[in-house]
Specification:
- By secondary structure, this protein is an alpha/beta fold.
- The chain folds into two domains: about 230 residues, P-loop containing nucleotide triphosphate hydrolases (Rossmann fold, 3-Layer(aba) Sandwich); about 190 residues, P-loop containing nucleotide triphosphate hydrolases (Rossmann fold, 3-Layer(aba) Sandwich), CATH 3.40.50.300.
- It contains 17 helices and 17 strands.
- The strands form three sheets. Strands 1-8-2-7-6-3-5-4 form an eight-stranded parallel β-sheet, sandwiched between helices. Strands 11-12-10-13-14-9-15 form a seven-stranded parallel β-sheet, with helices on both faces.
- The longest helix is centred in the last third of the chain and has 22 residues.
Length: about 550
């Protein structure tokens, strides 16, 4: 296996301090098809990123690749363009010779549904002017529409392992014509949790095919394991010429604080009011804490949403769509959003708890500072998580072995993050966002008057409503008048109104009358002797009945 690292080409400079920009190659010069180049230009992509410039010449030749680059540097097109270009489309030479016309020729496997959806959208944009069909397959959606798309014929499949295996078992997904297979976020795909599924998918592919593995983090054990599924792969590590060689990106400012768990909500609420803050992602360790944090921020007046595994697939897609469009500006998420989610204008990333390891930290932090933008990453470390943070700090070389003890009122917390002096943890009424209405627009002032200032409207009674009460055998009406003589006769005869509103009063009056009449009768009959009721014998006669 060969290793290749992209560096800036040397240039002759007339003066030592004169900056010289390295020459850039366009996609056309890298021998990318014209229809794909036109689609990229329409999307505003003219020149390749370093990882793309180095992988395209190798990948277009059909060689296996292990691609490694920092987050937000364009790895998707690094493997997406070769996968699209190697597809034999209808009308191309050799299409009639295919064994299974209409069956997929390229397969891209992603660990999460959100990443699969994003990769499918990026490839659809890159093939907009090409006659290439792309189908995204993932769980949480009905089988019928995905099965119909496969039966209609498709060229490229993007999916998650579980649904791919299910459709392959049903013999709906034909993988016998795959020429290019890609494992996106390969270190996660070759983890022990995904490894059996990945092996099952690779076993269903033809033995001769091109394999590409891409990720921002590629541990040595993963590279060793990858050799089992690849043929003489080229390991490409790409970095910018001006990069300092660290694992994290230079344009991401990283701040680490040791914080108390009970003070984190207040710290986050004040952080979200920092100057220049745009879209923000807050990462939590559990699904419950993500939902709780989102509810807390909404209660404090912020425009927030949550994204975690307990949500249904429709709700997850809706939350991510609202965040991309700006309808929701704060996304509280678990690690389902930590890998591959590409939103260019995320300015802040917050780790509410210390991440599990350095790889998780890199992928979370990499959600900001994308496409050349600057970003800020803030990590809160609990007292019991300091040893774990020390390991992350040592692995990444961040020079923050002991985070500074910080509270929501600490002066350096306000200074570091450009938080205006006097900021509190609840938005003022003039700045509250309309998160409850869901329109994403700021609410300048409340349009409703205070409850104590509102004038109460008296309740209006209907003039035709009547109430009937029976007194001494006669019905009495209250309120309006009866609509007809028939209703009056009915009320007098039955002793009740139409709605039975005064049934308790009628029952009490009837009981009172019966008690009075009973007392009168007892007084009149005092002279007559009372007749004793004979005792009823329960036992039988004879010897059997004499026993007690």
């Amino acid at each position: 296996m060969s290793d290749t690292t992209l560096t800036a080409p040397a240039a002759d400079t007339p003066e030592e301090n004169t900056p010289v920009e390295a020459p850039k190659q366009s996609f056309a010069e890298l021998k990318v098809r014209e229809d794909i180049v036109a689609s990229l230009l329409e999307a505003g992509i003219e020149f390749p990123f370093p990882i793309q410039a180095l992988t395209l010449p190798v990948a277009l030749g059909g060689n296996d690749i292990i691609g490694q680059a920092k987050t937000g540097t364009g790895k998707t097109l690094g493997f997406g363009i070769p996968a699209l270009q190697r597809v034999i489309r209808e009308g191309d030479a050799g299409y009639e010779d295919l064994e299974f016309p209409g069956a997929p020729q390229a397969l891209i496997v992603a660990p999460t549904r959100e990443l699969a959806i994003q990769v499918g959208a990026d490839l659809a944009q890159a093939s907009k002017h090409s006659n290439i069909s792309i189908t995204t397959i993932y769980g949480g959606r009905p089988y019928e529409e995905q099965i119909a798309a496969l039966k209609a014929g498709t060229d490229v499949i993007v999916g998650t392992p579980g649904r791919l295996i299910d459709l392959n078992r049903q013999r709906v997904l034909n993988l016998k014509q795959i020429k290019t297979v890609v494992l996106d976020e390969a270190d996660e795909m070759l983890d022990l949790g995904f490894l059996p599924d990945v092996e099952r998918i690779l076993a269903a592919l033809p033995p001769v095919r091109q394999a590409m593995l891409f990720s921002a983090t590629m541990p040595g054990a993963v590279i060793t394991m990858a050799r089992r599924y690849m043929s003489r792969p080229t390991h490409i590590r790409a970095q910018d010429p001006d990069d300092d060689g660290s694992l994290t990106k230079r344009n991401i400012r990283q701040l680490v604080y040791r914080a108390h768990n009970l003070d984190k909500d207040e710290m986050v609420a004040r952080l979200l009011q920092a100057e220049g803050r745009g879209k923000t992602i807050i990462f939590t360790q559990t699904k419950r804490s993500a939902a709780k944090m989102a509810d807390e921020l909404i209660d404090r007046g912020f425009n927030a949403g949550s994204l975690h595994g307990d949500l249904g697939q429709g709700a997850r897609e809706q939350a991510l769509k609202a965040f991309r469009s700006g309808k929701v500006e704060i996304l509280v998420a678990t690690d389902v959003a930590a890998r591959g989610i590409d939103v260019d204008d995320v300015t802040h990333v917050v780790n509410l708890q210390c991440p599990d390891d350095e790889n998780t930290y890199l992928h979370r932090v990499g959600r900001t500072g994308r496409a050349g933008n600057n970003g800020t990453a803030v990590t809160f470390v609990d007292w019991d998580s300091v040893p774990r943070w020390s390991l992350i700090n040592k692995a990444l070389g961040l020079s923050v072995p002991e985070p500074v003890e910080t509270y929501s009122s600490s002066p350096h917390f306000f200074t570091d993050l450009d938080i205006p002096k006097g900021t509190k943890g609840r938005l003022p009424r003039a700045k509250k966002s309309a998160a409850a209405e869901g329109d994403g627009s700021p609410r300048e002032s409340s349009s409703r008057e205070p409850r104590e200032n509102r004038e109460r409207t008296p309740r209006r009674r209907s003039g035709s409503r009547t109430r009937t009460r029976t007194v001494n055998g006669q019905s009495q009406e209250r309120g309006g008048q009866q609509d007809s003589g028939a209703e009056e006769q009915a009320g007098a005869r039955h002793g009740h109104s139409k709605g039975r509103q005064d049934r308790p009063s009628r029952e009490a009056e009837r009981h009172r009358e019966s008690r009075v009449s009973g007392e009168d009768g007892a007084a009149q009959d005092t002279s007559k002797p009372r007749r004793r009721r004979p005792r009823r014998r329960t036992g039988g006669s004879g010897e059997a009945g004499s026993q007690d």
